[in-house]
Amino acid sequence: MLIVKLICLVLGTALAVLFILFTLRGRKEDWRIEGVPQKEFSDKELWAAGFAMQKLPMFSINSAVGKKMMSASAILHPENGGRFVEYWARLYWARTLSMSLLVLALAFCASVFMDGYMVFVVLIAGVAMVAVIYSNGANEMSNQLKKRSEECMMEFSNVVSKLTLLMNCGMILKEAWYIVAKSKKGVIYDLMQEACREMDNGTASAEAIYNFGVRTGSPEVRKFASIIIQNIEKGGSDVTTIMRQQSDELISQRRQMLLRRGDDAAAQLLAPTTIVLVGVIMIIMVAAMTGMSTAI
To answer: Which of 51, 53, 105, 221 could in theory staple to 29 by disulfide, Cβ–Cβ 3.0 to 4.6 A?
Structure first.
């Protein structure tokens, strides 16, 4: 066990030294975190090591994980012509690398102070925690995009219904779009307002609607946007009819999504319920065995 502790001490010290060295080298990148909200990213002071680690080929922004983050960032942060796509991808990647290295170093160092099998328990728990941190960090932007897509889909049928109703009253698509965009608060309405700002700045309606579809991250919304754009290019005579058809389809899709969410919630409750059931059974068994031993 002494040899195991010695190995943990050497590895923990090496990892801690690496974290300190990377942090010192990454301080020149502190300008990247100046505009990052402290409330949402309270651990941003620890990201310097991650910026330095990105200089290594295996952890560069051009690695497989880095490219995945860039793809998600391109949809989440298309503002200013996509100038900040790489900026946000580097932030999330630096956060993931820094916290993974720090927790791994702490796990090895903490195991030195444990006795017996607790040394291995701490090591396993530390490595598992690093795996979770790395996985969550690498997929955080993709998860944000998925969440945005689901939120947009939940409200999109209402958006299309409102647009259809206003256009049936004689409004053109652009006017109806402006009214619906400001009619309610929510993710999809914010994205519609972004499209409004683009149109105000001279962007063609078709292009602004296309950009809106891309930003939602939802294939269904992109499909709807493409159909509307194609109809606009043909003269727009059948826009209302097409939107009415799309509204009916989206209501059905929303109903199916709500059913899936109910099934997912039921599945998530299954594990805690099983754990509670096993705990109750164990308590009953222990009580029964204690009673038997007392009777004997």
So the answer is: 51
